[in-house]
Write a structure and sequence with these properties.
Bound molecules: glyceraldehyde-3-phosphate
Radius of gyration: 19 Å
Distance between the termini: 36 Å
CATH class: Alpha Beta
Number of strands: 8
Largest sheet: 8 strands, parallel
Helix content: 40-55%
Strand content: 5-15%
Order of helices and strands: HHHEHHEHEHEHHEHEHEHEHH
CATH topology: TIM Barrel
Strand order of the largest sheet: 7-6-5-4-3-2-1-8
Shape: globular
Number of domains: 1
Structural class: alpha/beta
CATH architecture: Alpha-Beta Barrel
CATH superfamily: Aldolase class I
Length: about 325
Amino acid sequence: MTSTYDLAADASFARNPGVPLDVEWVGAARANTPAIERRCATLPGRRSVKKDYQAAWLCRAISCIDLTTLSGDDTAGRVARLTAKARQPVRADILEALGMTGLTVGAVCVYHDMIAPAVQGLKGTAIPVAAVSTGFPAGLSPLHLRIAEIEESVKAGAHEIDIVISRRHVLTGNWQALYDEMRAFRDACGHAHVKAILATGELGPLSNVAKASLVCMMAGADFIKTSTGKEPVNATLPVTLVMLRAIRDYYAKTGHVVGYKPAGGISKAKDAINYLALIKEELGDRWLRPDLFRFGASSLLGDIERQLDHRITGAYSAAHRHPMG
Ligand SMILES: O=C[C@H](O)COP(=O)(O)O
């Protein structure tokens, strides 16, 4: 088993050029909430992956993590530790037991001020640096400052920019304003890839999530992302289903591929497998690669490493066995 995926060298990591705003298409976008909830209720626990393949699925999940630190007390030292973990996400003996080489996370995700230590820590690797810009997490600073922040982040070396949309444009159904804002962010990103954070926990009904997903893709988002991780409700399976279906519709109508990033509160290996299973079922294997799929997560990697350790060495279960048997 090897993973030598090189994001920078992957010509298929295509840009979504976007299309003109199609208000009729957006207006027709719906989400059948009861049906979506029924479908998602069948997921947890049901998508048990064959034991032999579990380690491979977990390694795939690692390769798709945007390893994140987004805290007010972030320091260069913390980011240096994060980049070391990004380069070697699991212990060498686990990798050796799996016969795996070259496994890294998908990207490292930081605030603007932490781009420099992230770039420094990832020097010589193909791991991209993603920066959250545009007044993250609320996105309520003046538009010209949000655009300037993107430009500064690209100048500082970020390869990917995670922007936050103005939720009010969705809540008031002002699709033109959302399109124009996203287009301006897209243009400011230049050569950098752009992920549009919808903050789905603040958008109201699922049909708003479907409409906002479409508008952001029409305006040129390369990825659509659920959440900042700071909303009261972050990534969920129902929201994921709605966004994956929007990506599928957009691809069917325009031929442009757009990636997906669930973020916030995903911290367990078994949850990661549920997300991967849903993507495989809805979009197919093409989307199960880091150029089109990422987990935005600060603590998921730790649980995956524990699970791999458990599978490889049995050490986890031995350490947790009750002393009285
Ligand atoms: O974009 C990434 C999220 O902010 C990470 O959220 P988390 O700390 O709940 O994993």
